Amino acid sequence: MKTKRYIAFGMLAASITLATTSCSDSFLEVENPSGENLEEYYTTDAHINEALNAAYDPTHWPDWALGQYNALNIDAEIMGDDFWVGGSNKTDMQNWHMLSNYEANSSNTLSSLWTVDYSGIKRCNDLLKYLGWAEANLTAPNKASYEMQGRALRVYYYNNLWHYFGNIPFYLENLSSPYTAPQLSADEVYNNLIIELESVINSNVLPMRWDDVNCGRMSQAMCYMMYAEMVMYQKDTSRYATALQYMQEIINDKNEYGIMDDFASIWKNSGEWCKESIWEVNYEIGFSERTWGNPQGIGGTVLPTLISPNSWPGGEGWDAGANGWGFMPVRPETYNMFASNDKRRDATVWDCRGVEYTKRYQDTGFWLGKYRPYTENNATSGDKDLNYNNNLRVYRVAEAYLNAAELLLATGGDATKAKDYVNIIRRRAGIAELGAVTVDDVINERHLEFVGEGKRYFDLVRTGKAASVLVPDEYGYRTNSWTESKKYIPIAQAELDSDPALVQNNY
């Protein structure tokens, strides 16, 4: 049984779910400093580890924290073309419905995601400050590892904010009164982040992959994936060659990474941290500390509850009486885009047509199979709806292959190798190989491969396809079209009120 303790100083619980069934307890332990002076407390290796664990902790908050559900894959997918928002009606999670229809405002946006990510940034900055206090008591390798993990993790939090909000306050040292920072343009944020990430990568401190005792820490491969994602989203062609090099390093590292033979196996509990996994957000039902009263406590995730049918009658591994909330029904067009022999279809889309459950708003009978609920993955007591044992897969090796294919084509590289990379993914899916590939072919393959993983919307934006694809639908659910001004969503009114210098995005 994994254990966790708390760190004081009036902060939220400084814990981190960096564990799966194969991970050790030692990565999770946080001691109570009993109110000891900060500058005296953070002078040992053990206590620096606590600060590092505290910095990781907000990675598992977005699914439910601070009054909003903001699972990162859902936040992106509801603005794309594969899902409806669902729920009980269009006022249930109204911010999602308004974002889906490109009519969000300062009262209906991803307000808690902003707070969660800045909480993570604050904790990373704390860690980096504490390293100076403890330097005399740290080995050089440990100090370097803690520093680079903290800096990489800070990039991760900023990357989330940059994708959604674009023009954001940016700082690498924590603020003093009046607690405001310059708001940088999206381009300026990118320029700062990519240089910071390059510094972490070029240090060569982080391992390509951590051992099972440390699964969930920032790795070199995780940094490579963030780098490629950011460079491609920014369309920074000057860095495409480097991004390609990083993708090929992952592809060629057969000792650490590879493509799983069975696509469906990735999404099982046994598939967490498989050879295809580069980075996951870990959730663990062995703890009983995450409750509705303590949503930031260590524990499971609410995601399967959010995205499953209401009043389930039982069967298919999910006991009768289970109660999903009906968000994120899969559009029929998404199910139908798969060839009937594509092995990804039935692993991706849970077909519940014909099952008698309570239909909710925008119900289609199709649900996201990748994160569907199973009784065996659910807590047996406590706030069960909030505690499923499903890790969130953030980056997979399949994405490295498809990134590499796209980057090869974009840089005039080896088109045959690009084709081979795409066909490796198609062979695993059991569908016909392509004789040649274009960038559009790669984007289409990404669409099939990553349904429900939070990739599609950003792919449409970065490739210039959003304006033609994200248009009103025939059902009357989406009545507005995406325009370039929708790229960055509104900043919450509470943030604008707290800092009058903040400029609202022109949404």
Summarize the structure.
With 507 residues, the chain is mainly alpha-helical.
In words, what does this structure look like?
By secondary structure, this protein is mostly helical. It has a domain of 163 residues: Serine Threonine Protein Phosphatase 5, Tetratricopeptide repeat (Alpha Horseshoe), CATH 1.25.40. A two-stranded antiparallel ribbon has the order 1-2. A two-stranded antiparallel sheet has the order 3-6. Strands 4-5 form a two-stranded antiparallel sheet. Helix 8 packs antiparallel against helix 9, helix 9 packs antiparallel against helix 13 and helix 13 runs antiparallel to helix 14.
Counting DSSP E segments of at least 2 residues, the number of strands comes to 6
Q: How large is the radius of gyration?
A: 22 Å
Count of helix runs: 18
Label the overall shape. globular
CATH topology (fold) name of the domain at 1-70 and 114-206: Serine Threonine Protein Phosphatase 5, Tetratricopeptide repeat
- Uncertain segments are 1-33
Secondary structure: helix percent? 25-40%
Q: So what's the CATH class of the domain at 1-70 and 114-206?
A: Mainly Alpha
Described by its quaternary structure, the protein is: single chain
Q: What can be said about the biggest beta sheet? A: 2 strands, antiparallel
Q: Alpha-carbon distance between the termini?
A: 48 Å
Question: What order do the strands of the largest sheet run in, or round the barrel if closed?
Answer: 1-2
**Mean pLDDT across residues:** 93
State the secondary-structure class.
Answer: mainly alpha
